[in-house]
Every structure is written in structure tokens, then in C-alpha cells.
Design a protein that fits this description.
There is one protein chain. It is globular, with a radius of gyration of 18 Å. Helix 4 crosses helix 10, helix 5 packs antiparallel against helix 7 and helix 5 packs parallel to helix 8. The relative contact order is 0.15. Strand 1 and strand 2 form a beta hairpin. Strands 1-2 form a two-stranded antiparallel ribbon. With about 240 residues, the chain is an all-alpha fold.
Length: about 240
């Protein structure tokens, strides 16, 4: 987990340093950043695949709300799922981090929720009672997710409007990747997409804006990601931030 965060934070650090050296917002190209993220995600996928002890649980996609329902993935689909979740989560948090504290609070809430999932999945008694798959050793992950929640809560004091400290790409890419990684380890990828609703909406707003403009030469939103749309509607920045929280 920490290796995951380190790899993606390293990509973000390089991007931030390029922006600082150029004194503008042009860091790494989108293609170069995506390529670096892809390599890191595939390495993590291979690592997780080679360390599976019980494929029937650890290689299954759980379907929430439907009792005893899961889809057993082959190795190719499993690595593909890891790729989508980690790279998607990393970029989603990065897109959301456009206003002071906007991304930080959702990271705190999601990491706190994943801490509970990690504890339950790693406890044979609670996992059986709550009908969550028991995954041996996954309880150790709660140390990381709890540390993320606590450290981001302290960071929020200085990051909330008006921000004195910014997380930059080094923070947003790393935090997004580690949240996705933990969701995979505790086998709650679909639930994670629900918890990360704000991040998903931010990404979808960008995708819809690009497709609409390319196909119809019209913009759906005044500006994407969607938090800028509300800013241009005249909402004060703190109002946008707190409503999104």
C-alpha cells in the first residue's frame, strides 16, 4: 500500500516540480502522466495477483446489496480491474483538487470508511456475522487508512479556505491511488465508487464536457470539472466546497 502511494506521489512530485520550474501550470503532458500511472498500476496488479492466497475470495468482484453474489475474475480481468480502480481513483482525486479543501474532506471520510471495512474483513468473527469475505492479514491495512484519515484531518486545518498549504499533484495522485488500492485489497471496489461519488461526478463532468464539445460543439457546463461550473454561476468558493463535502 505504501509502495502504491509512493509511486504515484513520485509521479505527482515530478509533475509539480516541472510546473514550478516553468512557473506555469504546464507540468507533464497528459500522455506521459497516464503512461507513468499505467506502468505503476500494472506493477501493483502483478504484485497483488502473485500474492493471492485464496482466489475464490481475493480474485472475485463482490456485488453489493445482493447476498452471496460475486464474479470470479480471471488473471487478465483482475489486473484490468486493478488498473481501472487505481488509475481512475488517482486522476479523479487530482481533478477534484481544484478548490481549497475540496478533495481533502472526501479523502478523510472515505479513508475512515475503508478503515472500518479493513477491520471487519480482517476479523473472522465480524466478517462472518456481517457476511463480508474474510481476508487473512487485511486488518493490517487499517493502520494505513486510519493514518490517512488522521493526517488529512490535520492537513485540512491549513488546506481549507483560504488555504495556506496545497496538496498539489504529489498529494492528490498519491492519495487517490492509495484509496483505490485499499478498496481493492478489502474487495469493495463497487462500494468504493459509491463512497467516492464526488470524485466520480468530477470525472464524468470532464468526460461529458469533452464529448459534447467534440460532437456538438456545445458545452454542457460553463467549465469543467463541475466545481468550476458552480463558481461561474456566482457561488462563493466556500459554498461550493461545503456543498460538495
Amino acid at each position: 500500500g505504501l509502495v502504491c502511494m509512493f509511486l504515484f506521489s513520485l509521479i505527482g512530485l515530478y509533475d509539480d516540480l516541472k510546473k514550478i520550474s516553468r512557473s506555469n501550470n504546464k507540468g507533464m503532458s497528459a500522455k506521459a502522466k497516464f503512461l507513468a500511472q499505467s506502468v505503476a498500476a500494472l506493477l501493483l496488479g502483478y504484485f497483488l495477483l502473485s500474492n493471492i492466497s485464496d482466489p475464490s475470495i481475493e480474485q472475485s468482484l463482490l456485488i453489493p446489496y445482493i447476498k452471496d453474489t460475486s464474479i470470479l475474475l480471471n488473471s487478465f480481468l483482475y489486473i484490468g480491474l486493478i488498473f481501472i480502480v487505481i488509475v481512475g481513483s488517482s486522476n479523479a482525486v487530482n481533478l477534484t483538487d481544484g478548490l481549497d479543501g475540496l478533495a481533502t474532506m472526501p479523502v478523510i471520510l472515505i479513508s475512515a470508511a475503508l478503515t472500518i471495512f479493513a477491520y471487519v474483513a480482517g476479523n473472522i468473527v465480524f466478517s462472518s456475522y456481517l457476511e463480508v469475505p474474510y481476508i487473512q492479514g487485511v486488518g493490517e491495512v487499517l493502520v494505513i487508512s486510519a493514518a490517512i484519515a488522521g493526517s488529512c484531518l490535520g492537513f485540512l486545518w491549513y488546506n481549507t479556505y483560504p488555504a495556506e498549504v496545497f496538496m498539489g499533484d504529489v498529494g492528490s495522485l498519491g492519495l487517490g491511488a492509495i484509496l483505490g488500492y485499499i478498496a481493492i485489497v478489502v474487495r469493495q471496489e463497487i462500494v468504493y465508487m459509491v463512497m467516492a461519488g464526488i470524485f466520480v461526478i468530477e470525472v464524468l463532468s470532464v468526460i461529458l464536457q469533452v464529448f459534447s464539445f467534440k460532437l456538438f460543439k456545445k458545452r454542457i457546463f460553463k467549465m469543467a470539472p463541475i466545481h468550476h461550473h458552480f463558481e461561474l454561476l456566482g457561488w462563493p468558493e466556500p459554498k461550493v466546497i461545503v456543498r460538495f463535502w
